[in-house]
Amino acid sequence: MCGIVGILGNRPATPVIMETLHRLEYRGYDSAGIATLDEGKMQSRRAVGKLSELETLLAEQPLSGTSGIGHTRWATHGAANVENAHPHRAGTVAVVHNGIIENFRELRDELTAEGVNFASDTDTEVVAQLCARYIAAGKTPVEAAAATLARLQGAFALGFLFEGEHDLMIAARRGSPLAIGHGTGEMFIGSDALALAPLTNRITYLEEGDWAVLTRTGAEIFDALGNPVERELRIVNVDQVMIDKGSYRHFMAKEIHEQPSVMAFALSHYLNPERTAVSLPVEIDFSGLDRLVLVACGTAFYACNVAKYWFEQIARIPVEIDVASEFRYREPPMSGREGAIFISQSGETADTLAALRYVRGKAAHVLAVVNVPESSISREADASLQIMAGPEISVASTKAFTCQLSVLATLAIAAARQRDAIDATGETRLVKALTGAPQLVAQAIKQEPAMEAASRDLAKARDILFLGRGPLFPLALEGALKLKELSYIHAEGYPSGELKHGPIALIDDSVPVIVFAPSDDLFDKTVSNMEEVMARGGKVLLITDEQGAEAASHGTWRTIVLPATDPFVAPMVYAVPAQLLAYHTALEKGTDVDQPRNLAKSVTVE
Ligand code: M6R
After folding, report:
1. How far apart (Å, rounded) are the C-alpha atoms in residues 329 and 324?
2. Burial letters for 121-155: b for 16+ Cβ neighbours within 10 Å, e otherwise?
3. Coil, helix or strand for 466?
4. Longest alpha-carbon distance in the chain
5. What are phi and psi of 295, to 5 degrees?
6. Which of 67, 332, 372, 549 is the most buried (most CB within 10 A)?
7. How many C-beta neighbours within 10 Å does residue 185 have?
């Protein structure tokens, strides 16, 4: 979490830093700050709240200079106040940081014993204070930064700026991503290449343990041992259209509406239309595996939940799923014959990355399913499968989910074929269903007015339940997560059949119950559970297809009719109401849709 940016430029640095911070605000938005150098003299401004607060401050107290660093924060150590906002300054040093310095207490105690006074509660300030201490002891800024880095434990991306050093910036990466951008007579650093996109497409990614000394003419990179190293300079083209809201009010709305096209784009890289067959971009051998282990966090974990049904029912391979933060500390035994799949939009989620590192060398295959090809999870896996959703800016994950499902569905079909669980005819049937999914998602989006109307009432509720069965149960979980994170209404997702084992006690006419029930083999069972709710005065919003509506809409509070789907692709289609109900309920409640409180898009801390 936290976004960092730096520029050694030949134009006023403040507007460039602010514009870049806007593209990084998805990483955190508790407070923000900026420090610039004007003729070597350092000045800084920091403000609590979103970037607009810092903008207001800068309008009153502008900052000049052509070099600078900036930060947008998601608080880990210390409250969101001005003192804890970055950059942190000590002596001639200013530091911006993303990550956690795990040994900060020990370092803080050591420095305090030497007489240093700390101005903040953050872990980051020890970095600035330590570096300043080394400079005071006679080291050059570069030597001081190197000595400081050698003392740090934990995960971090850091940017250092030094008063009096107009043409110097130091960047370091351990655990958290950091990109260096090469301009013309200018150099940049940024938490991701997306943030630097309007400034340059010439990017060098720092590798684990690397640190770099930047001047306006280039970057000298060193590895963790201090040896000079060469890192590839890549041309990274990020489509500007994808990082713009266009005519939409929110990125989330745009990303929901993009789903049919990005899903079709993703599927085109995994399917062979001539043969109506799966054609994976990397070779994966599922035939000798004794099980699959699927690990992720949040929405990506719910994609794992859906995929479990697919892999077990279609490919007949046992699947274990877990949230990454549990998996990594559970230390599950591995036989060496499992395939481990790590799913992450950002590819930088700290828990998922740590779980991947746990299984490396213990599983037969370690696969990543990611949206950011250059991400740590992508690079550390044996093979990486891209979901090709394009930049997802809204904190709530939407199009990444349906693209994750699209890719996982192709893997399930490939596994089924390799394991002789289906024949060519079975593959053709599933591939046809999958090919039709983007169109069905587009049709589901057309029901937005009905979802918007229901949301006006949902916004008045204090608690909401979501029910689903089979592969629609994870959609109930996803619907509840979306609603919680966007509208701050308490919501829970349950398997329909589980309600009678306790949660049915919650039912009265103030608790809306949203039921995902396509007319599939489990429809009658789900409807029975729905009837149990209505018999207790419960207020049911049934989401089904035309056949389901005819059979079961009697007595419901509302029914929303989605297109009829092949059961295989129903989870993608029912993702749409899970997303749009949350979106419109949040609008109704007036919450911040793209940047809900307390959250950040990319969770790079434990
Ligand atoms: O980048 P990742 O897919 O690894 O992120 C995982 C979760 O943090 C993420 O899905 C989160 O739950 C979303 N905010 C949900 O909308």
Report:
1. 9
2. ebbbbbbbbbbbbbbeeebebbebbbbbbebbebb
3. strand
4. 81
5. -135, 140
6. 67
7. 9
User: From CA 95, how far away is CA 28, in angstroms rounded?
Assistant: 17
User: CA–CA separation, 307 vs 474, rounded Å?
Assistant: 10
Q: CA 459, CA 194: separation in Å to the nearest integer?
A: 34
Q: How far from 323 is each of 133, 354, 482, 604, CA to CA, in Å?
A: 42, 12, 17, 15
Give the mutation target among 252, 299, 405 for probing the ligand 1 site: most ligand atoms within 8 A of CB. 299
Tokens of 213: 């000394």
Residue 566 φ then ψ, to 5°: -65, 135
**Global confidence as pTM:** 0.81
Query: What are 535-582's pLDDT values in tens digits?
Result: 899 999 999 999 999 999 999 999 999 999 999 999 999 999 999 999
Query: What was the pLDDT predicted at 240?
Result: 58
Each residue's pLDDT tens digit, 66-118: 999 999 998 888 888 999 999 999 999 999 999 889 999 999 999 999 999 99
Return the axis-axis angle of helices 125-136 and 104-113, rounded to nearest 10°. 40
Residue 497: how many CA atoms within 13 Å on its side-chain side? 8
Task: Give the residue from 138, 136, 147, 78 showing the smallest Cα distance to 107.
Answer: 147
Q: In what order do the strands lie in the sheet with 338-344?
A: 319-323, 291-296, 338-344, 365-370, 383-386
The DSSP element (H or E) to which 14 belongs, if any, is helix 13-24
Which of 399, 482, 539, 601 is catalytic? The answer is: 601
Enter the tokens of residue 437. Answer: 């999914």
Residue 274 neighbours by CB under 8 Å, 6+ apart: none
Ligand 1 pocket check: which of 374, 380, 397 to mutate, most ligand atoms within 8 Å of Cβ? 397
Q: Is the CB of 578 under 6 A from ligand 1?
A: no
Give the distance (Å) from ligand 1 centre to CA of residue 297: 6
376 CB under 6 A from ligand 1? no
- With a 6 A CB cut-off, is 582 part of the ligand 1 pocket? no
Sequence-ordered list of residues with C-beta below 8 angstroms from that of 158, at least 6 positions apart, any chain: 4, 95, 96, 97, 98, 127, 149, 170, 171, 172, 173
3-state secondary structure 403-445: HHHHHHHHHHHHHHHHCCCCCHHHHHHHHHHHHHHHHHHHHHH
Q: Alpha helices of 258-375 — where are they, by DSSP H?
A: 259-268, 298-315, 324-330, 350-359
Q: How far is CA 56 from the centre of its chain?
A: 29
Judge whether residue 238 has pLDDT over 90: no
The DSSP H or E segment spanning 96 is strand 93-101
Active-site residue, 482 included: no
Q: 597: Cβ–Cβ under 8 A, 6 or more apart, which residues?
A: 488, 591
Cα–Cα dist 534/324, whole Å: 37
Give the separation between CA 297 and CA 342, rounded to whole angstroms.
Answer: 9
Residue 297 near ligand 1, beta carbon < 6 Å: yes
- Exposure string of 286-296, with b = 16+ CB inside 10 Å and e = fewer, is beebebbbbbb
- The confidence score (pLDDT) of residue 241 equals 52
